[in-house]
Amino acid sequence: MRIVSGKYKRRIISPPKNLPVRPTTDMAKESLFNIMSNLLDFNGMDVLDLFAGTGNISFEFVSRGCASVTSVDQDFGCVKFIKQVAEKLEMNELSVLKQDVFRFINMSRRTYDIIFADPPYKLENILEISDAIFEKQLLVDGGWLIIEHPKEADFSSKQYFKEHRKYGSVNFSFFHFVI
Length: 179
Prior knowledge:
Strand order of the largest sheet: 3-2-1-4-5-7-6
């Protein structure tokens, strides 16, 4: 796994093999960030990475100049790995929380410019993620929610849905929160 662009470009990150994750492929990640780069200027943005796993996406956001990135995952090994990499690379913009994502959403009082969610593909309530985020008003006006999901999950009828993109076996649904 590598950081594609920005301050930490070309850094290789090697997560332990025993983490319960399915990291976003470099091809899909590069495509995702190409789309977002055409829509947004990352400098100064506040980002939330839900189901952060290896921190792959969080590291990319920090590398591209986001003011703050909050990574949330409930697995101790994932949280520990993200913290270790952040310390090693001196990513002071990155904070990591070990918590259930739905509990975090329910308790959060903060808003974000971008929220990225990469839930386990077998998560039973995967389609409820966008509902929970918009119900709790976690995005600023004009903010973006991106959910990585299996092809079987269809978010197209959900509020604020903008578009769906597919890269190999990786699917992204984009939501644009505009009041």
